[in-house]
Amino acid sequence: MSVTTNPSAYSLADFLIGESSNPLSPPDDYIRWKAAAEWATSVYEPRLHGPATPRALFAMAGGAPAPCLNFASYNYLGLARHPRCVAAAREALLEYGTGNCGPPMLSGMTELQGQLERELNELLGTEATMVFSSGYGAAVGALSAILRKGDVAIADSRAHMSAVDGVKLSQARLVTFAHNDAGSLASCIEKHKKSRILVIVEGIYSVEGDFAPLAQLLEVTGHYGVPVYLDEAHSILCCGRRGGGVGEQFASSKGAGLRLSTFSKAFAGAGGAVSGDRETLEYMRFYANSYTFSATLPPATLAALIAALHVAVEDSSLRDRLWENAAYFRTQLRTIGVNTGESASYIVPIIIGRDRRLLYELCHAMRRRGLFLPPVDFPVVPEEGLRFRATITAAHTREEMDEALNIIEDTVVPALGKFRGNAGAA
Ligand SMILES: Cc1ncc(COP(=O)(O)O)c(C=O)c1O
User: Fold this and answer.
1) In the CATH hierarchy, which fold is given to the domain comprising 38-70+317-416?
2) Is residue 269 lining ligand 1, measured as CB closer than 6 Å?
3) 391 touches ligand 1 (CB under 6 Å)
4) Contact between residue 391 and residue 234 where contact means Cβ atoms under 8 Å apart
5) Which tens digit of pLDDT belongs to each residue from 295-306?
6) Cβ(257) to ligand 1 under 6 A?
7) What digits encode the pLDDT tens for the residues 255-282?
């Protein structure tokens, strides 16, 4: 079997090892596979013409922009074009210009960045916060700053790549426990209890859409006295009465020593932050290289993030609408016979199985009907769990969701048959 005769038997995981003498030359097999698997690779990096609204203009593979229902955006609270966020960005742009032009350590930290740090502390109930220019950079910087060779990072098996890469960079050992399984976590800690340990979990998992069972996990970590890194990328501003994330929702923030927030999702901007105890963060400022050696966010972005935080904290109706929309969409999908896994949130997987060719054929079929759902392929998800990931926002209307559901019912359901295993799922 070769990469060209049966390209769907291969995935991006197969081309990680270079086989050429020049690191600038991608592997030959990759080049041949990419050409043969154009039906798959062409759906990535679709061009977005205009804002990330529920109806957006997408152009695929060099084609002309076409209107599509957009279920691919993390603009969870619909703040990307909120008048207060846009006005705050515009004002900061006029006052500060386009950039801060250097890392905060040497070139100066704007008062806007200091304000965002303080307001996040207030929201999360933490002593200190550091703002980074991306969520990925925040995770990699924080973990590589505090972990050392000889340490053991015990991560949920579905932990995000940003945490995996942070641990790799630190040279600590990475071990995983079974997804959301407190018993498996306890066994891992028991096995490695002679080492320094950090446990890594997420509030809402980014490709499953399920919550971490925080109370159970924190009971285990509390029992062993090991600290926890809690990634709130998909939960910050969306969970908890004031938007303080799963830490607020499950009243368990005290057990999590470090909290990661990203600003690319409900904040509708870009950047990330790590929050925790003052002493930890004061040390981290000098050892998180993605902070110390990297320029900070532009003032206009910082101003928009502060405005987004204000809007989200003040207006809980956005959260209410997000959760209502998510419940409606999930329930309807389950009713029409779609396998949505364990999703309990606004991240809703549509699980296809192992058939890679079918995944991409369905992606094209839905797009032709005017719906863009991003495919998620191995190695991001297990080989038997290839899927689409629908993300619901507060800005989606009932009509938009119904239109998307009709398209899914006409394409995915006939291809797979009705799934009957959702019974009892929330
Ligand atoms: C769970 C999780 N953590 C961290 C990140 C990184 O965030 P950003 O895209 O803001 O760099 C992401 C991004 O999707 C994520 O899903």
Assistant:
1) Aspartate Aminotransferase, domain 1 (3.90.1150)
2) no
3) no
4) no
5) 999 999 999 999
6) no
7) 779 999 999 999 999 999 999 999 999 9
